[in-house]
Amino acid sequence: MARYILTIVGLGIAAYFYFEAQGYPTAAGQLPALVALVVAGLSLLISVEAFWARRREAAQGRAPVTGTAQLPNLKGVFRATVFASMIVAYVWSIEQIGYLLATPPYLLSSFLLLRVLRPSLAILVTALIVAVVYLVFVVLLNLPLPLLPAW
Amino acid sequence: MDQSVVLIGLANVLSPMNLAVIAGGTLLGLFVGAMPGLSATMALALLLPLTFSLDPATGLSMLASLYLAAMYGGSIAAILLRTPGTPAAAATILDGSPMAASGRAGRALGISLLASFTGGLVSGIALLTVAPLLGRIVLNFGPVELFALAVLGITIIGSLSQGSAIRGLFAGTIGLLLGTVGMDPTTGTPRFTFDNIHLFSGIEFTVALIGLFSVPQAIRLIETSQVGQKLASRVTDRMLPGLRDTLRLAPNMLRSGVIGVVVGLIPGAGGDTASWFAYNEARRFAKDKSRFGKGEPAGIAAPEAANNAVVGGALIPTLALGIPGSSSAAILLGALMVHGILPGPTLMTDHGDVTYTLIWAVILANLALLLFGLFFTRIAVMVTRIPDGVLAPIIIVFCVVGTFAINNSLFDVIFMLGFGLVGYLLDKCQVPLAPMVIGLILGPVLDTSLHQSLLIGQGSWGIFLQSPIATVLLLLAAVSILQATPLFPMLYRRIRKRRNGDGTDPTQMNKTD
Amino acid sequence: MKAIKPLVFAMAAVAAMSGVAKADYIAGESVTVLQGFKAGGGSDALAQLTQPYLTKYLGADFVNQYIPGATGAIAWTRLAKQTEPDGTTISITNTPMLMTNYIMNDAITYSISELTPIANIVTDPGIIVVAKDSPYKTAQEFLDAARKNPGTITVGNSGVGGDDFFSTILIERAADLQFQKVPFQGDGPSWTAAMGGKIDASFNNLGITFPQIQAGNLRPLAIFAEERVDMLPDVPTLKELGIDVVAGSSRGYSAPANIPEEARAQLIEAMKKMAADPDFQKDAAARALFINFKAGSDYEQFLAEQEKTFGEVWEAVKDDVQAK
């Protein structure tokens, strides 16, 4: 199943690049257009390969190895999704409220929500990491991180 | 070569200040390399302003030792955390991580350290002895030859696709496609940029790498944190390989070192591709190719020797001609320029003292690497005792800072996240990411050099055959492709059958793929 | 009690004198310099050369912020549109990139009208270099060959939109010639290719190629300056050859539009003092940087002229360059 989605995505990407490239001057568009065609071809081959592999395995009476036959680790996937969304929120919040105000909440909430550290330890680790980053990057190396909110 | 300048350089480098700086640079490089999200180029760019107040040789020694140490440090993360600490360590994951997963992390790290030391030493010696000679080679690599080299690099994609060649090629060509994003060098048109000026210079390859490898790995740590197992909680096995192993790996390490020097030498080839070339050659020359990707020592030694050798290799044209061999070498050159030392042949003559101090610093940095590397690695292994759930957010924090620090751009951070999502999904679909990295590096090189070559050749494709170097490289590429197809085993079978005279099929005895 | 008054006066006098001796920048204690290119590059070289002197004459510290990307457009867009015009943030501006960025690209929205040019510091004149074993020993031979074989002599430049690209076009138009232009990613790869014989010639810049010229690896044919340069007295200018083109790449400082007049005046004054400082001149010469100081409105006029020239040239050639 995943393979077929991959094919569609691949074809989509290839189509976008191919048609965009048509609008560019020849020298600029040649290579992208060519490579896009190759991507399209390979995308189709992915599905073909998956299809044949499954048929071959079915014919031999074996359980299909390709695809999603295994029982998904639901709890893990849920935690991963939560974690991923928190990363997105974190990066978004850096732009809104600055690095110094965004990082501690991110770290704290990660540690606490995913229940990996006791609250006291979570605060300690958070403070440590933020301090290290601040001292090394901002103070020592003059990195122009947007520390505080723009307003 | 002026003997006295060489000796002056040696005397300079042995001063307490310079030694301290080499030690400090090495430690810093180890840390920067080992930390996912922080890259050597970023660290060099950030430290450059700090070196302005130091005297040139000292400042350069610090930068050079950092660069060298980071090339080993990257493998620590690659082996223990399955994510490259620096772009050059991406190839080390292929065999380093499986070896660590099977409980032999110490051995993997030891091989990596030894190989890094060897590769660095090879390039340091090359730098000391034949730099001007090798510098001349750089001039023979014009757009035509560079194109042929890029094509050769792309044929590696096929061999890196463990499992499915089709999926590997798919990733590789998408990488190529993404490499064309940005302003086209021939016409100046911005391609696929959605009118966002942050994409005008193309996709920053380090950002993509951090996104593709480190972010999904952090997410995966969370996903499997209660199910999975630590990669290594303690280095129980002996780190440095014994004499027999060392001798067995020696040809590989030396060959990879040479590859690293050559690839680093050629400006525009991208030092990060050296580890892939070396990995490919190690596979080609190995008797049992099937062990690659499962924890084969040669698969760790090759890329690590190569990426450390790149440091010296990239410095050769930088010092001999004033042409930086890699973007990191360009920063070192910048350090020289700021002190009023102009890049060019005068570096070896008028400013020979600074230059040779630097060269000796590179050689000494290798020793520092060996010493500090052992000690640092043991500390770094303790990192694996930290619960995955704590490590993952910390990795993300460093990825964010490290990505921002590359171009001081928050857009890059957002971009990194995008790649993170893509990397995670692709990994779920069992699409290998290594080929995409190669495509991203080589895509722009291929595109630019192709157009330049055609302009030079007035539109004729025959220009590629007019250059002996290019022809040889293209033939090598063709051979690589053919080797991957059934054609070679078929021919091999035919030839052997005729020689054996009987009906036995020799290819059945030792399957190569 | 009575002794305090003269004491206070004395202290005030001392304070006033030290205030006069070190001119304090009215806008603040520290100036941020946005750089549109990576650390260690040509812009950085200028920054590192000038900033110690500027700190002395202006009385403020300088902090460099590197925001590379889109050939400077990201930094300059930020300067023009997102920076407080209070005089605490300026940028190093290079021509022709400053103008060609938005001339060639509609997506780039800043323009020089949104900037306050402070001063141009250096200009690196254009130069034609060939390999040391090239068949062309003089500029005339080179130009004749180009005339006999239009479109076949390969010349390298530092990239589409760079100074070499435009000077090539200006020369082509002025002399009615046609070269085969090969773009490279910067001046470095361009002269490297020429030195290796991969292209016939490189249209480059003097400061960048001088070390190789001195070492004998590159042969200079002509220089795109008003008059011959002291460093290469035997190299003719294009004007002498009958081609009226003066071109090069210039670097200076600019601020966002509408900064306080007092700050602007102080910045210009500090730069003037720096340019007149003999130590500075010696320093610059040692780094092969040619001082071409244009202050305030001179710089503004220079930029406007360049914008016009490049705008016209681009209009004329863009259809060819971006042929479908």
Descriptive keywords:
heterotrimer; A: 151 residues; mainly alpha; 2 domains; 5 helices; flat; C: 324 residues; alpha/beta; D-Maltodextrin-Binding Protein, domain 2; 10-stranded mixed β-sheet
Largest sheet of chain A: none
| Oligomerization state | heterotrimer
Q: What gap, in angstroms, lies between the N and C termini of chain B?
A: 49 Å
Individual helix count of chain A: 5
Annotation, overall tally of beta strands of chain A: 0
End-to-end distance of chain A: 48 Å
Low-confidence stretches of chain A: none
Structural class of chain B: mainly alpha
Report the principal-axis shape of chain A.
flat
**What is the H/E order of chain B?**
HHHHHHHHEEHHHHHHHHHHH
Number of helices of chain B: 19
The largest sheet of chain B has its strands arranged as 1-2
> Which structural class best describes the helix and strand composition of chain A?
mainly alpha
Average pLDDT figure of chain B? 85
Quote the average pLDDT of chain A.
84
Percent of residues in beta strands of chain B: under 5%
Which protein chains are joined by the largest interface, and how many residues does each one contribute? A-B, 59 and 58 residues
* Percent of residues in helices of chain A: over 70%
Please count the beta strands of chain B (DSSP E, at least 2 residues each).
2
- Largest sheet descriptor of chain B: 2 strands, antiparallel
